[in-house]
Each structure stands twice: as C-alpha cells, then as structure tokens.
Amino acid sequence: MRLGEVERLRGELSGFVAEVFGSLPRRDQRRWGECYLRGLMLDGRRRSIQPMAERLPDGNMQALQQFVNQSPWEWTPVRRRIAERLCEVVRPEVWVIDDVSFPKCGTASVGAARPYCGALGKRANCQVAVSVHAATDSASCPLEWELFLPQEWVEDARRRRSAGVPGEGGHVTKSQLALGLLDRLATWLPAVPVIVTDAGYGRSVSFRLALERRGWSHVVAVDPRRSPGRPRRSRLGRPMAGWGRRPCRAIAARPLPDLLGEATTFSEVAWRQGSKGELTSRFAVLQVRPSGKEASRVAQEQGGGRNRWDGVLPARTLLVEWPEDAPEPTGYWISNLPPTTPIKELVRWAKMRWRIEHDYRELKHGLGLDHFEGRTWRGWHHHVTLVTAAQAFLTLRRLDPKARTPASPSTKSSTPCRTSCGAGPEPAPPADAP
C-alpha cells in the first residue's frame, strides 16, 4: 500500500494491535509493534528494519531494532490471540502443515544450513521453518510457526548460545515440530479440523499414527515412489494371516500404481473454481491397509496383544488422481476418514494445499517474511509473529463486509500480491494451482 492508504488504516490498526498485542506489558512495545506492522504493509522492495524506518514518518531504526531483536516480549500469547481471532472469522475447514525456506548468506543466522532450499530449487544455505495454516477455499492465514534446527546446530553449543537458542534438547524432526505445533493449537482453539499435508509428512507412518492417536482426521499425500512399509511376516517368511484381507488392498513394498487394477473406477470430480473455469480431474477411492513395523505394532496393541491380534491391519482410504491425458496417476492421498466420506469432500480437502502457496506468496512478496536480516532465535520469532499479525489484520479486513476498500495501490511497487494484501477482492487462484 501507499503511505496515504496505510495512514488511513491507522485507527483500525491501533484497535487490532491493542487486541492481539495486549499481552505486551509496556505501551512503547505496543507502539513499536504497530509501527513495524505499518512498515510491513508499505510499498517497497525491502521490508527489513532500516528501509522500513526510512519510509515511515515516525520510523526509528534503533527503536525498531531493539523491539524486534532485543526486547524480551513473549510471542506465544500474541500468536495465540491471532489464531483465536482468525478462526472466529475464517472458520477453517482444514489445517495445512507445510515448511518454507529462507535463503541466507553466511552461517551465523540461527538454523542456517545447506538442505534443499525450495525457494531456490536446489541445495543452498537457508533457514527452514514449519508452519500450520488455517484454510478454506476463500481465505487462509498461518497460525503457528517453529524454526527447524539441523543436526549440526544441535551438536554445536557455541552456535546455539550465540544465536540465543533456548534449551539443550536433542534433534527434533520436522514431523515432530509439526505435531508440537498441532498440540499447542489444539489447546488454544475449540476444534481441530481435518489435517492436510504434502508427501514430505504423509509418507511418515509414525506421523500418521500420531495424528490418529490424538483422534484427528487427516488427508495426507504419499509418495508413490516410496512404499509406506512392508507387511508383517511370520517366521516362515509368509505375510501374517489377514494382513491383506479383502475388500482392502495392502500397501506393501511395491509401487502404489500396482494397487490399481482394471476394475478401479475413476470418476470426474470438480473441486473449485479457478481463474479459467472449474477445476476438474479424475479420481478413484480405494480401501487399503497401510503396512509397516509401527503400524503392525499399534494394530497389535489395539487388538489386545500379540497372542490375541488376528493379524488384520486397519483399513484406510486411498484417494488417487489420474487425469485423462496423463500416462499414470499424478497424486495419492491416505486418509483415516470413514469410507462413506463423499469423494468430492476428500478431493476438496486434499487440494486445499494450494492456499499455502498463496499464503507464502503474500507473506514473502507482499509482507517481507524472508526479509529479516537479524541472526537470533528471538529476533526471527518476533519478525515472523509480526508478519503473521500483518497478514491477519489484512485478511480480517478483507473478510469484513463493513471495511472500506482503499484506493488502488501504486503500480510502481514490485509486490505481486498487493491486491490480496489490501482490503479489495481476492484475486482468483491460477488455473493450474493444485
């Protein structure tokens, strides 16, 4: 937005800041929080502290630097209030788990290493964060974040102390971080909707079982090139009796396309309206029994122990997408929802991950999510919390029928998603978005 547009929103923004930053004990902290949010929403190529302070009429680089990097305010209560406020209005159908990378120069930034960087499409020096987003077909916003620490950071106490990383715990995987975020959100919010993930999380049997132990429904993508496990076998090497009992099929150590027989029926399903019309594809639903050592152990425990278990693994729903013009299936999702769940609902939930790409595009290009230049754990969490607050404010304003649409944003800005960051109508998603 232009400076004039941001200034006209100061009254509404002050009320929002007073609500979500009410846990901050000092008035000057809330003041600089509001100032930082206005800096994030202003037009400009960089949304790091120095250029934002120069663009704002009341900007003060030193004060903003201290507020973000050194001030000891707690970010968890702020995120909790944002999540509560958003879910009251958005009423999410799903929570989407994903991770995002932040390219970095040098190795001093907290969590920086050289994994695969999705932002650059190759292995590169970057930070990686796990996030949980509330989503419907018409709105979405992140609810919680956690920064992933690679093994090299866990083993280097000096680097952790230098970056202000708390605790001395062992290595925590991204799946474990995601479960921690979900557990926290479950205590904040009245209900947990359907959990949706990509194959990076869905291929983990332990992750899927952890969701089920908590009583949460999920629709998670799985990788057809990697089997979720092998069937439990007897001492003679044969599969245990009942492990693949029909009408279910077992997902064993073989490619998922092998599960599709000639009798598998694919039907055309439309799941949402894209910018070039209704999005449709062909889908089929099968009942399968995902195998694996941990799946067998859990089924054994639920069946009354090793001697009383009948060897039958739990049945799950497998959703398969096979477009008419594709030589083979293009997507697989496993769900613990009842087999009577309408296929259209399964497809809608599985495909709702497209909202996350919209979120990241808005957060990065429109609000400077990856523009933070600090190096500390506290500074990173403060910046991410403030960016989340800025997007939450704009999302709530866009969904408020009483909100007055601001003037058209400047065409000189390089921000590609400025319309959705403002209060105007949200742009239609690209037709090829999943």
Protein topology:
Layout: H1 3-8, H2 10-20, H3 27-41, H4 49-55, H5 61-70, H6 76-90, E1 94-103, E2 116-117, E3 122-123, E4 126-135, E5 140-147, H7 151-154, H8 157-163, H9 174-188, E6 194-197, H10 199-202, H11 205-213, E7 218-221, E8 249-251, E9 267-274, E10 277-290, H12 293-302, E11 316-321, E12 331-335, H13 343-351, H14 354-366, H15 377-399, H16 418-421
Parallel strand pairs: 1-6, 6-7, 8-10
Antiparallel strand pairs: 1-4, 2-3, 4-5, 7-12, 9-10, 10-11, 11-12
Short description:
The chain is of the alpha+beta class and 434 residues long. It starts with a helix and ends in a 13-residue tail after the last helix.
Keywords:
single chain, alpha+beta, 10-stranded mixed beta sheet, two-stranded antiparallel sheet, 16 helices, globular
3D structure, described in words:
This protein has 434 residues and is an alpha+beta fold. The protein has 16 helices and 12 strands. Strands 1, 4, 5, 6, 7, 8, 9, 10, 11 and 12 form a 10-stranded mixed β-sheet that branches. It has a two-stranded antiparallel ribbon with strand order 2-3. A hairpin with a 2-residue loop joins strand 9 (267-274) and strand 10 (277-290).
